[in-house]
Amino acid sequence: MKFSGFKVVKEALTGHKGWTPLWRNPEPKPAYDIVIVGGGGHGLAAAYYLAKTFGKLNIAVLEKGWIGSGNAGRNTTIIRSNYLLPGNQPFYEFSMKLWENLEQDTNFNSMVSQRGIINLIHSDGQRDAYRRRGNAMMISDAGARLLSREQLKDMVPFLNFDNARFPIKGGLMQTRAGTARHDGVVWGYARGADMHGVDIIQNCEVTGFKIEDGRVLGLETSRGFIGAKKVGVSVAGSSSRVMAKAGMRLPIESHVLQAFVSEGLKPTIPGVITFGAGHFYVSQSDKGGLVFGGDIDGYNSYAQRGNLPVVEDVVEGGMALMPMIGRARLLRGWGGLLDMSMDGSPIIDKTHIDGLYLNAGWCYGGFKATPASGYAFAHLLATDTPHETATAFRMDRFNRGYVIDEKGVGAQPNLH
Ligand SMILES: Cc1cc2nc3c(=O)[nH]c(=O)nc-3n(C[C@H](O)[C@H](O)[C@H](O)COP(=O)(O)OP(=O)(O)OC[C@H]3O[C@@H](n4cnc5c(N)ncnc54)[C@H](O)[C@@H]3O)c2cc1C
To answer: Taking every annotated instance into account, which residue ranges of this chain make up the domain Rhodanese (predicted)?
Structure first.
């Protein structure tokens, strides 16, 4: 089934009888050439590109719950490519280019909305840092604008410009950044993968690996043994738990990140605004809710729910930045499980076990990476070589000392 304006009109006039499910619900086969573990955005995107771009057949995605039930359906939907370091910036810019063509590519409305992101500047040191970051962004063609305080007052007059502790002195803007509907991204990739023959198997938890003579032969699952020539693990916040079943200990800690949405308001916030000094970020959904978040909960956890002290901290950040938020009622809050790596950057790499590959360490910034991560993981699984934009995301960088410490906070996963 192909989506088009013509199809929508036709279905509206004929009682909506021609819509079909977006993907099949197949029983698992005894074996596949490639099995991806984890039906989040990254796993499904990898399966999609493996089948579509690299022409691979006989692929399955195994998901322990329903697809998108993890972080893919819990994030605050921000997409951007405003990074600084050479290991990161070209990768995230590649991702942004894939976002820009995603809906045409998958023939699915993922509501990609390039409304722009503004990172606020509160000190002269921060202005220097953002100037440097803006230059790195321009080198990789991502585009960047340095905004003065006066320009910002015109664009976002509701911010508290004269906060005594965090006066707003300007901002760094990426106009091509914005948001995308997270569920729409998952469904678009799932539908595209399914159309190319990928089996998406939900309610299928991987409980163990069959490894013999240093080579992976398949997976123990809640639906029986499934053989595989290659296995790609892409389970985000569950990475350390799943890879432990293959006998591996990862440089990753799991932490909870919460997010919140207010009642629906009239259009107020033009794009995404980030308040790094107080750690608060906000955008407005198409339904009108203010979508916002801040710091992680600050201790290790595998629970997909957070605690009240962080709610208070995030809301304090919001009040410091835009006091009008105090008039809005909070509608919902939720938590997701982050795979925080030691330097804040991801891992897309082969492991020492033949046929076993890992995609992990996305911290709280993996949604924007979904297209490029899927593409680069598919490239690695299909060709056994890293994609040109992902060569720095090797696991042994922690041994070699070549960490990609974008935030410059050292081996402190809870600070990235
Ligand atoms: C509150 C919050 C806000 C965020 N905001 C942003 C943002 O604005 N922008 C941004 O870029 N990033 C953001 N992120 C981060 C982003 O959502 C994640 O980095 C990204 O979604 C991770 O990749 P994924 O979609 O594949 O993960 P997931 O959706 O978590 O996919 C992993 C899947 O693996 C499955 N799984 C786990 N164990 C097993 C098993 N044993 N067997 C089978 N399946 C298994 C899980 O059920 C899950 O569905 C945010 C995260 C959170 C929690």
So the answer is: 34-78
pLDDT at 410: 84
Summarised one tens digit per residue, pLDDT across range 275-325 is 988 889 999 999 999 999 999 998 999 999 999 999 999 999 999 999 999
* AA identity, residue 234: S
CB of 64 shorter than 6 A to ligand 1: yes
Q: 51 alpha carbon to ligand 1 midpoint, in Å?
A: 22
CATH ID of 114-176+253-341, from 3.30.9.10, 3.40.50.20, 1.10.645.10, 3.60.40.10: 3.30.9.10
pLDDT at 126: 95
Pair 379, 54: CB distance under 8 Å: yes
Listed by start position, the domains of the chain span 20-78+84-93+100-105+182-251+343-415, 114-176+253-341
> Which of 364, 373, 375, 406 has most ligand 1 atoms within 8 Å of CB, for mutation?
364
* CA 368 to ligand 1: nearest atom: 11
In tens, the pLDDT along 31-60 reads 999 999 999 999 999 999 999 999 999 999
Say which DSSP state 79 is in.
E
**Stated pTM of the model:** 0.97
